[in-house]
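Support reply, case 0932

Customer input (verbatim):
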Amino acid sequence: MAINLFRSRILWKIYAAFVIVIVIAAVMVSMVVSGVIRDRTLADVQQTLNVRTLFLSRLVLPLLQGEKDLHLRRALKDVAVRSHTRFTIIDATGRVLIDSDKDPKLMDNHATRPEIMESRFHDFGVANRYSNTLKTEMMYLARSLKREGELLGYVRASQPLILINQRISDSRGMILAGIGMIALIALLLGFLLARHFIRPLLSMTQMAEAMASGDFSSSLDYRRRDEIGRLAQAFNLMAEKSRQRIETINSDRTKLNAILTSMREGVVAVDDDEKVVHMNQAAVQILNINDQEWRGKAIWEITRLQELCGALSEVLQSSTDIKRNLNISYGMQERVVEMYAVPLKSGTVVVGAMVVLLDVSELHRLETVRRDFVSNASHELKTPITAIRALVETMVDDADHMPEAVRLSFLKKIATQSLRLSALVVDLMALSRFETQSQDEVLKMRLELNDVVATAVNCLRPLADDQDISLEFEASDEKIELFANQEMLDQAITNVLDNAIKYNTPGGRVRIGLERIGAEVIVEVLDTGIGIPPQEKERIFERFYRVDKARSRELGGTGLGLAIVRHIVSVHRGRIEIESRPGQGSTFRLIFPFSDPSITSVTETEEKNHG
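Our regenerated output:
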């Protein structure tokens, strides 16, 4: 884990505070030490000037008493040069008698000088001031000379402060240099110390950021025995525990999402504010909403189903389970949905609600189909049975007086109704048998489709001739093979041809063609019959449904033929297309997937092996 210490803000904050403290300490020490040196230097200079004025006062006493001593003037100038000190002898009136640097005649009266005035009342006086004569800052020390209480004059010694300031500046430079060296060493040690504590913190920060982004692979490698080392160990342990918990949570969440996603039932969960917290794909489809619309929204914002919203509100308020049926309409599509809503609790507190939605539209449709089938089948079976029974009872009750012609007419009607009843039972049994067969059982034999169609045409040609219908077959020039069930395929083609013949008009024409287009085989049956109204196209494949009920019964139709055709084509993975105009005829196309001749069916392989 790469760590860039120089980009650490906390490092520079700590180090900046450390630098400020050291700089302030250095400045304060420098100021204090410089002040002490200055005070001591000034005190030393003052002491030196005091000693020199004491020594000089004994030498100049005769001069102040009126004696003339030229030798003293020369000696005073020589000492002044050697000691870098200015000496001045002043009489009691303030007149300068001797000065080591200037001509006394050119100097002002010194009676009002601060050091002179102070020494008049004390043994000596000291003053630091600017000298107009020498044009520089000076320290003056004047000592009054008295004899028996009478003031004789003053002896004054002075030195330029520039020398003192130079000495203080030199001392301060040495002090600052020393303090600077110490500060640099302290700053270096401070940086190392700060880095010693900041480095593990930065490592922990980077590790925490990695954990926040989902990366739990990193760890801290610290073998320190102090509190930071213990913190690093605790951090590693926390990261490992967090990684295990996150993996467990993700695994459980993945399993739960997989379960909820694969469920046929729609699941919707809301919190106590009725905001959606989860909705699986089945619920999205059932409620007909966008997959992204529900996130973070209230349930009443994404659906207008009052029954659903009201049920969830009722569950949240009453904490009771609710089971209801919903009728959902979206345009022409209608759905029947079973809804089961339950509260979600944390302990005894209701924190939300969940509703399970099961689309039972197909079950309702199948139930309706079942009821219609039972009703229609009962009606269709009852009609010939009732007719046969009525005819038989009439013949039995009037057996002795019934004319032979009437009896023969009754017997013909009984035979017709028996044939109708037999055909109905046969179709019902065929439909039941076909519906129990799976694709694996059906698609196991390769058939040559030209032969199957030719067989069906030959079987129905007498019926077509009886009704003066022209029946034509246009065989394919190529060999067309299908994996199919021969009985079922023959039944489907026969039923379509039979309908085309029955619902045609005398002198009409029925043509059946066969061709392969790409990966599909098309069996096309065209007739010039009565046609099918557009609104009836979707219903003609329903069981017992007839477009013209009177004519169908007259022709002996059972109403199951096209239902059988649709099922057979569906089992063979095909589809049916219809084109029709009332009064102009219809075209039925049975479309099947083409079977590659290079592929051998399971049944053929087994037969070869056993053979």
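We compared this against your earlier run and they match. Two observations from our side: The mean pLDDT is 77. Residues 201 and 284 are 48 Å apart (CA to CA). Please reopen the case if you see a mismatch on your end.
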